[in-house]
């Protein structure tokens, strides 16, 4: 067998040579430019579609009913709807990741409104439709955020205490029903006892109202509901307490149950 030398290299003319690289294949002296590629994964049938979990839908619905939610409240709410979680409250990063997905899907707007408080979130028009709500899209006014936060605190407290035995009827739904019945005062929410269907009125008072205004509100609420839960701030507590005492036979009927809002605020 003949061989030839070139420098220190010996060339065997009939040798079988296999050389592989990422870009070419050499076999028996022939070069192929075809790249060696890994087999592609088959795309899932739901590729490109929006996938929302039952927890997503429950959280979006809650937010849409309440106008908006502050991020720390969203952490509490997300914990409630997370099965198998032992943490008292889900961490910031976990909840931020979930809300970022909603923002990316165009379901939620998320903004820092006040420098000293956590960011706020509310549903877009698409988010309201996705949650199955017919409420109109509306960005809350700056002056409304404190009241929304207080009402949200009350709802979280009531739902934590009463669980599945009650149904919270949000302000939006409650006042639509009241308007149809010709009632004037806008209530902050209703609680339906699922065992007997009794409806309880819910009032949240942050600022002190004039005596005549409070008396008018209490008269209307007394005529509409057998029981009313009143959550008042420290500023408004004394005025509400005095107004309740002016209601005839209030001790016997026990229509109004007064709470300090500061005792249940999250």
Walk me through this protein's architecture:
With 266 residues, the protein is an alpha+beta fold. It has a domain at 142-266: Dna-directed Rna Polymerases I, Ii, And Iii 27 Kd Polypeptide, Chain: A, domain 1 (3-Layer(aba) Sandwich). The protein has 9 helices and 13 strands. It has helices at residues 54-65, 71-80, 92-104, 125-130, 145-162, 171-180, 211-224, 234-245, 250-253, and strands at residues 4-6, 9-11, 18-20, 25-27, 30-32, 69-70, 108-111, 120-123, 166-170, 189-193, 199-205, 227-232, 256-260. The protein has a 5-stranded mixed beta sheet, sandwiched between helices. Strands 3-4-5 form a 3-stranded antiparallel beta sheet, with no helix packed on it. The chain has a 3-stranded antiparallel beta sheet with strand order 6-8-7. Helix 7 (211-224) packs across helix 8 (234-245). The termini are far apart.
Structure summarized in a few sentences:
The protein has helices at residues 54-65, 71-80, 92-104, 125-130, 145-162, 171-180, 211-224, 234-245, 250-253; strands at 4-6, 9-11, 18-20, 25-27, 30-32, 69-70, 108-111, 120-123, 166-170, 189-193, 199-205, 227-232, 256-260. It is α+β, with helices and mostly antiparallel strands and 266 residues long.
CATH topology of the domain at 142-266: Dna-directed Rna Polymerases I, Ii, And Iii 27 Kd Polypeptide, Chain: A, domain 1
Mean pLDDT: 85
Q: Estimate percent helicity.
A: 25-40%
In terms of DSSP E residues, the strand content is 15-25%
Low confidence ranges: 1-32
Rg: 32 Å
Please summarize the sheet with the most strands: 5 strands, mixed
Number of helices: 9
Categorize the overall geometry: elongated
How many DSSP-defined strands?
Answer: 13
Termini, distance in Å?
Answer: 91 Å
CATH class of the domain at 142-266: Alpha Beta
User: What sequence of helices (H) and strands (E) makes up the elements?
Assistant: EEEEEHEHHEEHHEHEEHEHHE
């Amino acid at each position: 067998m003949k061989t030839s030398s070139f420098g220190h290299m010996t060339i065997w003319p009939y040798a079988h040579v296999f050389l592989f690289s990422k870009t070419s294949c050499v076999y028996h002296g022939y070069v192929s430019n075809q790249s060696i590629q890994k087999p592609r994964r088959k795309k899932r049938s739901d590729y490109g579609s929006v996938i929302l979990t039952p927890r997503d839908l429950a959280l979006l619905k809650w937010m849409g009913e309440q106008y908006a939610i502050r991020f720390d409240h969203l952490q509490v709410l997300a914990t409630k709807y997370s099965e198998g979680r032992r943490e008292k409250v889900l961490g910031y990063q976990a909840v931020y990741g979930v809300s970022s997905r909603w923002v990316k899907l165009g379901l939620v707007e998320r903004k820092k409104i006040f420098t000293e408080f956590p960011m706020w979130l509310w549903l877009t028009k698409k988010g309201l439709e996705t949650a199955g709500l017919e409420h109109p899209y509306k960005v809350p006014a700056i002056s409304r955020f404190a009241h929304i936060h207080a009402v949200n605190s009350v709802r979280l407290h009531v739902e934590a205490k009463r669980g599945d035995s009650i149904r919270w009827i949000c302000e939006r739904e409650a006042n639509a029903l009241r308007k149809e019945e010709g009632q004037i005062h806008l209530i902050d929410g209703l609680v339906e006892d699922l065992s007997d269907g009794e409806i309880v009125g819910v009032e949240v008072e942050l600022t002190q109202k004039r005596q005549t205004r409070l008396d008018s509100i209490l008269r209307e609420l007394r005529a509409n509901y057998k029981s009313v839960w009143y959550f008042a701030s420290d500023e408004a507590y004394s005025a509400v307490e005095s107004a309740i005492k002016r209601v005839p036979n209030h001790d016997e009927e026990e229509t109004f149950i007064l709470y300090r809002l500061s005792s249940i605020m999250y």
